[in-house]
Amino acid sequence: MIETLQDQTNVSGSDLESFLGLSSGSLTTGGVIEGSAIKQTIVASSGDVLSFSWNFLTDQVPSDSTFNDFAFFSLGNTVSSLADTFTPTTISFSRLAVETGYQTYSYTIPVAGTYTLGFGVVDVGDDAVNSALLIDNVSVKLQAVPESMSSTAVAAAMAFGVCLQTNLRKRSYKRQN
Fold it and tell me: Which superkingdom is the protein from (predicted)?
């Protein structure tokens, strides 16, 4: 769980941008006061599919555009919002008031490379109300690479070639005699 704790997180939006390798202003222009994040370096090929499950929880009830905490993920220098305080629709049975429930997100990697994958949750406008992000089932599924011939097919083709060559030699030998 990644969480903002009332008056305790003390990690600024600009510190999060630096930690995740984001451009200055990627988070702070949205009024981010503080937050929490995790990151991992991944290597992916073009066409690979990044997928994960997530659940955003918050105590920001009722929702307020001035204090619109949000959860996000980043890949490289791109930040994508997952949810904000207007998104949750379910009463939470956790210690936080409401949640989205688990959702699945998938993203196709456009260009091969090494990426920083980040997940975060931030307080907007104040640091007085808790919000959290749960992340699960993170995976990068490799793009299926079609094989021109499997090893079984290659072996079968070689065996066929040997049989054909043997038959041609036998016919050639019979004709000569």
Answer: Bacteria
